Amino acid sequence: MTEKITYAVEYRKGTKWNQNKDSLYRYMECKLCGQMVVAGEEAIAITCSDCVNELSDPVEIGYKKSDKPRGWTLMKEFIDKDGNVYHRGVEQPKLKGTLTPTAFEKSDKPAKRMTKKEKHELISTAAINLHKLKKQLEHTRWKKDKKVILSEIKLHTKIAMNKFPRNFDTNKYLDTYKNNA
Ligand SMILES: [Zn+2]
Predict the structure, then answer these.
(1) Which of 19, 23, 26, 178 is positioned for an S-S bond with 174, CB 3.0–4.6 A?
(2) Distance 124 CA to ligand 1 centre (A)
(3) How many CB atoms neighbour CB 95 within 10 A?
(4) 50, 33 contact by CB (below 8 A)
(5) Strand ranges across the sheet with 36-38
(6) CA pair distance 137, 125, nearest whole angstrom
(7) CA angle 13, 17, 22 (to 5 degrees)
C-alpha cells in the first residue's frame, strides 16, 4: 500500500553546514506553516521544529491586564483608581482615599507575545532589506542619501538582532518592508 503525499516535496542541493554540497536532500513542506524542511525519504507529512516549539510553548494561564502603569512600583507615590496609595510599590493604608488617583495613559493594546513564526518572519525580512540597502549604499554618492540609507540600516540591524524598539508594530513593519525588498 502506498500512501499519497499531499505536501510539496522538493530535492535541493545541500547548503547548510551540516549538509553535503554535492548531495540532494529531500525537502517537504511543513504541514502547519508550509516552510520547506529536510525530511526523510519515507516521510509523508512533517512538522518543522519551529512549529514543534510553538506547540510546546507554555500557555499563559489567567493573565490579567494590569490596571497600573508600567514601573508603578518605582514611583515615589502612586495612587490607584480605588484611592490606594503606594510609596515605591508599598501600600500606605492610612493614606487611602486622601489623594487623587495618579493619571497615566493606558495602552489599549495589551503587550502581545511575539510568536516564533513572527520573529522568523521579521528577522528574514530585516536580512533581505539589509542586503539590499548595503548594495544601495555602495552605489550612493551623496551624503544626504547615504544618511537615509544608514538610518534604515540601523533599524533593520536591530530587528535582525531580535531587538525591537518600544512600540514596535510588527504588522506595520512587515507591510512596509516585506515585499518591498
Ligand atoms: Zn512549521
Answers:
(1) 178
(2) 15
(3) 15
(4) yes
(5) 9-13, 24-29, 36-38
(6) 18
(7) 30
Rounded distance from Cα 122 to ligand 1 centre (Å): 16
CA atoms within 13 A on the CB side of 82: 7
Burial of 126 (0-12, 13-18, 19+ CB in 10 A): buried
Q: Is the pLDDT confidence value at 121 over 60?
A: yes
**How far, rounded to the nearest angstrom, does the alpha carbon of residue 87 sit from its chain's CA centroid?**
35
Which whole number is the average pLDDT over 127-142? 92
CA nearest to 67, candidates 30, 106, 16 = 106
- The rounded Å distance from CA 25 to ligand 1 centre is 18
Per residue in 43-87, pLDDT (tens digit) is 899 998 888 877 776 655 555 567 788 788 888 999 999 999 999
- For residue 103, the one-letter residue type is A
Q: What are phi and psi of 173, to 5 degrees?
A: -60, -50
pLDDT the model gives residue 64: 59
The answer to whether 105 and 161 are in contact (CB under 8 A) is: no
The rounded Å distance from CA 172 to ligand 1 centre is 23
Cell numbers placing 59: 500557555
Sheet containing 90-91: order of strands? 78-79, 85-87, 90-91
pTM summary value: 0.40
